[in-house]
Amino acid sequence: VQLVESGGGLVQPGGPLRLSCAASGFTFSSYDMTWVRQAPGKGLEWVSGINTGGPNTYYADSVKGRFTISGDNAKNTLYLQMNSLKPEDTAHYYCAREDGGATMDYWGQGTQVTVSS
Length: 117
Description:
By secondary structure, this protein is mainly β. It is built from no helices and eleven strands. A hairpin with a 5-residue loop joins strand 4 and strand 5 (about 45-50). The protein is globular. The mean pLDDT is about 95.
């Protein structure tokens, strides 16, 4: 199993950014997937999840209405479209696979998002 995130970078407040997570080594459509972030000096924060077989989507209150999670089963890729970014969205963003029991059993290396003017 391998998860590889990309798409992070420096963006101005209010701007958009799209993260991607390329998955391999498992049947992508059979697993729920999640985005988790960690801000500097803080713990892990769950951001969003998707049942790729559904798809049903879920969001933390802090990103609801601004972020959109999606998955492309043909490309085995998970996305996170982030709009109206705020400085408090600055964090290292990870994608993770859920093992069916609400446990995240595989993680990518993450991608850094910095929101600053």
